[in-house]
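All the exercises in this workshop are built on plain-text protein records. Sequence and backbone structure share a record, each on its own labelled line. The question running through the whole workshop is how a given chain folds. The record below serves as our worked example for the rest of this section.
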Amino acid sequence: MARTIEALVAEVRAHHAEFEATAAEADRLGHAPDALDALMRRLRVPMIKAPADVGGDELGLAEQFAYFEALSYANATAGWTGFNHAGAAGMAGAKLPDEGARLLFGSDPSPVLAAVAAPSGRWRRADGGVVATGTWQYASGVRHADWALLSALEAGTDRPAPRLVVVPIEQTTVAGEWNVMALKGTGSISVTLDDVFVPDALVIDPAAGLRRGGPMYLLGYQAYVAPENLGFTIGVCQRFCDELARYAGAKARGGEGRLADRGAFQYELGKGQLTVRAARAFGADTFREADSVLRAGRALTAGEQQEIAAMLAWSTESAANAVSHLFHFAGAGALFSHNVLQRCFRDAHGSVQHQVASNAVYDRVGRALLSRAEGH
């Protein structure tokens, strides 16, 4: 039975101490600790976007946004890897053939899939399936995954058709260095396939129709992942604002007195918090509008999906910039690896680097405005 967003958020908040206990360790390890992986499986984080027909919660866009804000506030590694796992389970649950859906979801109430959307590999037809080869970078959370969902293009043709392949993790090679500034706990290393046979039951044609679920699963990649990505950013940025407010009450720098008593800091903290709230409100409103269209059974147009992309870029950039400006007040103590402020600062800026939040969408919005102004 699908869980409500209220119950899901309450569950995350009830386990805040457990999430917090593994946050710094994830950064040190470069991937989720076993305790965090176990907690996320117990809470069935990977299933919040999966169709109800395979045991998922099938949350709408606005609900996904709220969920991943709560999860990322509690633990950024959980938020980032969790949305990767959830997005993959959602797409697999919606589009796999029945036999494949039974393989994934039939005996496991919360299978963990690491996904890479970029078509970094090649596939060729074989009897009863395909053979896939390639190396896919940025497979977030892959060290604890049961499966990999990977995008590949057809080999040996001028017009290569895309396919998604679902492969048991033991048939892959997981390797690579994850020595990064931000998102350190996500362990987003590489997955390699070397002529791995994938049966038709575990192959998805992205252009094919849905087998389960509603029109949400027909969204393009950027719109499909927008609520989880923005939820991550807002959760991390809100955590930063809350932690900085607490920190300011005890922080004094030389003869300047408490940070909390400085008028300049009070002004900037208020402004920064309002910026994060504005980004959250813009996102929530945009996702609610999209949900109303999807509930009516209509897929979003390309223009409507571009509006989501533009909102995502602006809201991500604005919230991260607010954190960046406020971090200047924290002083040298915030630089230590044990300080939650530096983790939130780094991870907020890590979210801006994701391709889906690219400010290239501003170019397209600007071109559309100029075209209308010129009467085209």
About this structure: The chain has a mean pLDDT of 94.
